[in-house]
Amino acid sequence: MLPNIAVILTDAQRKILWVNDDFTEITGYTLTEVIGKKPSLLQGPGSEQDAINRIRRSLEHQIAFREEITNYRKNGEAYLCKLVIHPVFDRQQHLTNFIAFEVDGDVVKDVEDLPLLQLQEKYSSSSLKGLEEVKLFFKVKLLVEQERLYLDPDLSLKEVADRLHTNTKYLSQVVNHHAGCNFQHFINSFRVKEVKEKITDKNYHNLTLFGIALQCGFKNKSTFYKVFREITGQTPKEYIKMARA
Fold this sequence. Notes:
Layout: E1 6-11, E2 16-19, H1 21-27, H2 31-34, H3 49-60, E3 65-72, E4 78-89, E5 95-104, H4 129-146, H5 157-163, H6 168-179, H7 183-199, H8 209-215, H9 221-232, H10 236-244
Antiparallel strand pairs: 1-2, 1-5, 3-4, 4-5
Helix pairs in contact: 4-6, 7-8, 7-9
């Protein structure tokens, strides 16, 4: 399953304009609580001064950069924040925004496989195409999660694209770009999460593994076993044994 990736959009003065739901999941702060404030509100007594200085210098020089710093959740708990920040410019190359992607470094040890945490990604387009891609990615993630579209074994890229008022080519590119996989694998990751929840739930112990998989959107037994192992690194039986232990 994809890790929580907080997205923070600020104006050129570094005041927060928008954050996504993953930001709230990681920090405990909602959009209404942080709008108009600066991301430095997450810093605290244990935040490394060297990292603060490097962040400040990079922002002042309007360059993209990667950093690690100790931040603090709303409840006062410290955590390691791994982040990437990109400046965004208009057609006249005037700075208009900063966009930041952050993960909880205590949970996500390796960010090399996360496209959003790579510096080579471009968010400085004058059309803000990069920013629009980010928004669309989180829209599709939210739609699939909230409406549990993955439970439909025949769910298609076109159906989701139509729901989001976009085209299949663009949606496919956005998922590939930001999830690092194709649309089918992206949907299967939600199905695997659902399977993992059900196979350890005693209410489903009367079902076979594939019976549970059918309820979670899979329709082919061999595909289920293959995908489960690809995503979790374990077979379903190995996962059950580990979970119950």
